[in-house]
């Protein structure tokens, strides 16, 4: 039994080190941004699409920011999904100041579809341009180059999808630190496999793709019944090594307002984990191998530490735990610097252990849930 325990520990440790170095290390240590330049003589138009419900306060700040973008041809389509906070009045007022703002007001949602997918579909249908850039109402681009950088692979490199990073505002508190840790881990999955030409997920608050392709695929066909997944599941179904690019640049990201209560955060994550059960089997494996080896690594390490009566095994296990912790810190720091321009990722080992517990409890619940909600 003891030999099996050690075998499991070493296999799990090896798997973790391989992921951290070969997979996640692609973003942290290898990738270098190269500005290839672009021909701006005939710039292709971009439609920024936002689906919002009761987001008046956020839209009031976001829309003026969007129209400061340094890009010559773009519009902003805001789909107001049955809001009760006078979002419609705000959009009407802002339209007088920003002629390229196009409000779409939804009065009802058909029973057989989910609200956000329906809202996005309507917004996409009325958009003028073929290049679509999606974000959320509570997001904000960090620079005036956001539209240009995020749409560049689609406009200039014949890509269907461009996957961007969506970070969260830094705030005090342990919940925010947990959100920061999980967001960076999600980014590592998204961009690492994207760079390895095996993309399988996207983030709806910073995602670009072609309208023609969306319409050819009949919008969210076979996804209408799933709450959420308008971003990662759409990408999961259709992205491949030839049609997808990742955008890694600190000026291409959006920053969102994070949840401030554990209850709201768990509702959000329940929706995300629920969507994950519809990934392709091979993509579930990409997540599952890391997550399961993560669990086995910590589980077997703790069992050995509790039951060992000599210093040799304790020293070996602690040595591997610390080695992995230092490597993970270096990966997280390097990736965050590439993606966000900042590299502070303190207490990674603490939140790594916290995340493992959270993932297997909340993730299992979300995976098994039959119903989730958007708002």
Automatic annotation (TrEMBL):
<keyword id="KW-0472">Membrane</keyword>
<feature type="transmembrane region" description="Helical">
    <location>
        <begin position="344"/>
        <end position="361"/>
    </location>
</feature>
<dbReference type="InterPro" id="IPR029044">
    <property type="entry name" value="Nucleotide-diphossugar_trans"/>
</dbReference>
<comment type="similarity">
    <text>Belongs to the glycosyltransferase 2 family.</text>
</comment>
<feature type="domain" description="Glycosyltransferase 2-like">
    <location>
        <begin position="47"/>
        <end position="160"/>
    </location>
</feature>
<keyword id="KW-1133">Transmembrane helix</keyword>
<dbReference type="GO" id="GO:0016757">
    <property type="term" value="F:glycosyltransferase activity"/>
</dbReference>
<feature type="transmembrane region" description="Helical">
    <location>
        <begin position="314"/>
        <end position="332"/>
    </location>
</feature>
<feature type="transmembrane region" description="Helical">
    <location>
        <begin position="6"/>
        <end position="31"/>
    </location>
</feature>
<dbReference type="InterPro" id="IPR001173">
    <property type="entry name" value="Glyco_trans_2-like"/>
</dbReference>
<keyword id="KW-0808">Transferase</keyword>
<dbReference type="Pfam" id="PF00535">
    <property type="entry name" value="Glycos_transf_2"/>
</dbReference>
<keyword id="KW-0812">Transmembrane</keyword>
<feature type="transmembrane region" description="Helical">
    <location>
        <begin position="287"/>
        <end position="308"/>
    </location>
</feature>
<protein>
    <submittedName>
        <fullName>Glycosyltransferase</fullName>
        <ecNumber>2.4.-.-</ecNumber>
    </submittedName>
</protein>
<keyword id="KW-0328">Glycosyltransferase</keyword>
